[in-house]
Amino acid sequence: MLFLAFSSSTWAEWVYVTKGVSHQVFIDTATIKRTGDDRRVWELRNLNEAFKGGMSFRGLVIYDCKNEKKKILAFSLHSEPMAKGKVLESSNSESSEWDYIAPRTIDSEVLDFVCAPNKSK
Asked: Domain of 82?
């Protein structure tokens, strides 16, 4: 099933959320799923400079709205912006740890966006 989710991203409706010095963040708002205080969502990060030959990351991420944390469930690194081109690396990291989201950061802006009451199903 994860393979299908990765392959379907070319049809995603990516919505611009924010940008920083190194990258821009987009969310597929149709994928925001609410479970209690958590939001599961597909996000995309376009890089300003290549990382391991890649220009974008796409990830399935859970945001804990109450405790302001996030966990990456799966990700892929792509050779071109907007998760296009070759997949250079991918991982299912469901055992990954929760990461605290610091205030006034790109991740805190994404958290605010996906946790807004009108953004989830």
From this structure: 2-119
